[in-house]
Amino acid sequence: MPSQSTTRPAKRLPSARSIIKAVDALAAIDERRLSKRQRFSIESNDATAEDLDSVSPVMDRYIAAKGVEVVHALTNFSASELNTLWANIKPFVTKNWSVGSGRKCPVTGKDMLFMTLVTLKHAGTWDILSASFDEGAATFSNRINQFIRVLHPYLVRKYIDEQGMKTAPAVSFGEKKTYFSKKHGLYGHKVEGSVAPNDLAINVTNCAVGSTSDFEMFKANLGFHSTHLEKQPSDTNVSANDALRDKFPSQ
C-alpha cells in the first residue's frame, strides 16, 4: 500500500501590526534601562581609583606629589634602579609573598619593596614611618618585617652566593687562591678604609689581593694612622689619663 505523504501546515508569520508593537515594546525597555544607568555616575568616587591597575599605587602617589626624584630621596635608589631591582625579584615575590590561605596583604609587592627601602634608609620609630604611609604602626612593622624575612634568603642567594662564584678567576688553583679572602668567603681585592667619628671616610688604601691579611694591610698603612694620631696644637692642654700616655706622649 503506497504511503501517504503528510503536508505540514505553513508557519503563521507575525503580522505587521504585531511586529511594530514588539519593536516599540523592546525599544521602550531599552530606553528605561538606559535611563536607569544615567542616574549613576560611571566615575568611581574612590580617589585612588586611577591607581587600581597600577603595580605600585603607593609609590606612584609619591611621584605624582613630589616628582620622580622623591624615589631617590627616600630610598637612595633612582626610579629606574628600583624598577630594575623589582624586575629581578618580582618572580620570587609573586610566588612567595602574600600567597596561600588566609588574609592577603593589600599592599602590592613593588610597594612593599619601596616601603621597605624607605624604612631601611630612615629607620626611626615605627610611628613616624607608618604615618608616612597612612598605616598603623603595628600593622606596618609586621608587614615590613615579614617581607624582609621572606625576601632575605633570595637576596643572599642571588646577590651574595651567586656573585661570589662569578668572581672566581679562571686561572689555576695556585694563582686563584691568592685572590680568595677566607674572612669574607669571596674572591677579589680588598681595601682598608678609615672612617672618622662623624662617619666620613677620610682615607682608602690601594687595593690588595684577597688573601692579604687585615694586619698586613694595617701595617702598610701605619704611616697614615700614626700621622693622624698625633696631637694637634689645640690638643696640647688636653690631659691624657690612659695607660699608654708615657709611651706615646705625643698622641
Structural class per helix/strand content? mainly alpha
How many domains in all? 2
Sketch the topology as an H/E string, one letter per element: HHHHHHHHEEEEEEHH
Shape: elongated
Q: Roughly how many Å is the radius of gyration?
A: 36 Å
* Strand fraction: 5-15%
Tag the structure with descriptive keywords.
two-stranded antiparallel ribbon, 2 domains, 251 residues, 10 helices, mainly alpha, elongated, two-stranded antiparallel sheet
Describe this structure as you would to a colleague.
By secondary structure, the protein is mostly helical. The protein has 2 domains: 53-166; 173-235, no CATH class. The protein is 51% helix and 6% strand. The chain has a two-stranded antiparallel ribbon. Strand 1 and strand 2 form a beta hairpin. Helix 4 (79-96) crosses helix 7 (137-166). The chain starts with 15 loop residues before the first helix and ends in a 22-residue tail after the last helix. Residues 231-251 are annotated as: Disordered. This is DDE Tnp4 domain-containing protein.
Concise overview:
This protein has ten helices and six strands; from the N terminus they run H-H-H-H-H-H-H-H-E-E-E-E-E-E-H-H. With 251 residues, it is mostly helical. Helix 4 packs across helix 5 (109-122) and helix 6 (126-132) packs across helix 7.
